Amino acid sequence: MDINLALLLVLTPFLGFLINVFFGKSLGKTVSGAIGTVAVAISFIVTLILFNQITSTGKAIEVTLFDWIQISNLKINLGFLLDQLSVLWLLFVTGIGSLIHLYSISYMHDDENMHKFFAYLNLFVFFMITLVIGSNLLVLFIGWEGVGLCSYLLIGFWHKNQDYNDAAKKAFIMNRIGDLGLLIGMFIIGSMFSTLDYATLKTAIAGASNLDSSMLSLAALCLFIGACGKSAQIPLYTWLPDAMAGPTPVSALIHAATMVTAGIFMVTRLNFVFDLAVDVQTVIAIIGAITSLVAATIGLVQNDIKKVLAYSTVSQLGLMFLALGFGAYEVAVFHVITHAFFKACLFLGSGSVIHGLHGEQDMRKMGGLRKAMPITFWTMLISSLAISGVPFFSGFFSKDEILMTAFHHSIPLYVVGSIASIMTAFYMFRLMFLTFFKEFRGTEEQKHHLHESGALITIPLIILAILATFGGLISLPGNSWLNEYLAPLFTKAAGEEHHLGTTEYTLMGVAVLGGLLGILIAYIKYFKQDNVPESDDNIVGLNKLLYDKYYVDEIYDFVFVRPVNFLSKFFRDKVETGLSALVFGLGKAANELSFQGKKLQTGSIGLYLFAFVLGLCAIVSYIFLAQ
């Protein structure tokens, strides 16, 4: 029964991918969209069954399909591990994934390659499920590389635009850098413990008497580098904002439910490794805090509605890594869940706006959409309140837990996280005021065609807005269902829940006031003063530095891209030319030798017999002389 459910869970999206790849075009857009959506919805239903089973029994489900690799004492199975963490992750991967698929039926209906889009979406979900339920690091790596491939395919889906192709390549290449770190970490762990299986590895580490802590720390650091690539942390974060090149449902899927959460999942899954690498945990916390702040500052001045949300994602991921760095894994998971709700809603809401404005993404050309698109407005407002940490929306509870954890471990990092949170509230309501309030600043043609999106778009928005409102109830301070649910997975209570006291209430009040301050500043500047950001040519000073993202892309281009291109051209034009001359020279020499040898072939049988006799006599003479 368990193996059937596991196979149904993982293979249904893959079947949807196959059907749409081979038959989607002939089936038509509506049917291909329905097949893709139903495939993920079936996986969601199976996840609910597994969640109920694991919650009631408290026992993990292990499924071994077959023995895969056995080299010396290293044995790796192709198997699945369905426990509290994996099933919890699957709930929002398949649940939010189903809503995004449903949304895409309407959003992508005018695209000629709609069947291909749903095929890629299904493949994306298939690989993410594989990543989450794998019983060892090698199965995780299959899913890890698979979601990287699908992100490349989907970011560059509109491949006739070269900028979109460049964004897809950038995401693919930058993730390969992180993946090298992940592979090295896997090799170190495999050589140390002769296993990549999670359960066996946890037992081996717990029972090790003379553990090489330096090698284990190196493995943890390499694994974290892999997480930096996949979950967009400094210095491997610049691909994620450019990933906005793909259709908006892709942005929602990558940012909310799948790819960027993979790094958080991997670190949480291997918590027993990172708990023993305290120095690496400190690095994780610092990188997370810096990433959160840097991304938030960039988000302050962006004018593309999707770019604002993209840098918001990078910033929120930084807060999650801040919690991971303090060993508060359940707190990080809590924010992953709430973030999935409100960020999916925000991206799909931005897609509704872009859809209504026929592709316009510049907030300077929006405004006044509140009356024309009321459902989109209210759902995005709810999600903006949630991400800003306003009581009592979901983000208030999860972000407050992160800041409390930071306060109890490192005051400086708490301050950095708090500043980033204030900035989040500011730029999110900057987005809301510029997009939905005051007068419409677009063209008359756009204004004439303004309307609310259809039911297939608004229904997912409403569901996600409800989840963004009440999702925080799964982990209330002092009464956390989530913490109790995940407790069997963690070796120590480093992230134990905070019981409310004077300090906690004070921190909560400071966080709320900070969020409200950010909203107030945005209100004064963009509503009361009716300020509209300047055109790109007129942006100067600090705003220019932030708008151009600290010129990090330009620095990377100068330090890495140009030297590599120079070396490539040098080897192509100089080295390969010389080697080609050598190779062709050898070919010419062989050709000349064969030409001269061919002259010996006269066609005279008598001459051949004479040469044969001479050769035979020479051989006989040599034998006698040698004796």
Question: Can you describe this structure?
Answer:
By secondary structure, the chain is mainly α. Among the domains are: 277-473 and 496-547, no CATH class; 555-626, no CATH class. Helices cover 74% and strands 3% of the residues. The chain contains 25 helices and two strands. It has helices spanning 2-27, 29-57, 84-107, 114-133, 137-155, 162-193, 198-207, 213-230, 239-242, 248-257, 262-269, 271-274, 278-299, 305-325, 329-356, 374-387, 394-409, 411-436, 444-448, 455-470, 481-486, 502-528, 541-547, 552-598, 605-626; strands spanning 61-71, 74-82. It has a two-stranded antiparallel sheet. It is globular and about 110 Å long. The N and C termini lie far apart (82 Å). The relative contact order is 0.07. InterPro entries: NADHpl_OxRdtase_5_subgr, ND/Mrp_TM, NU5C-like, Proton_antipo_N. Residues 135-424 form the NADH:quinone oxidoreductase/Mrp antiporter transmembrane domain. Keywords: Membrane, Transmembrane, Transmembrane helix. Residues 68-118 form the NADH-Ubiquinone oxidoreductase (complex I) chain 5 N-terminal domain. It is a multi-pass membrane protein.
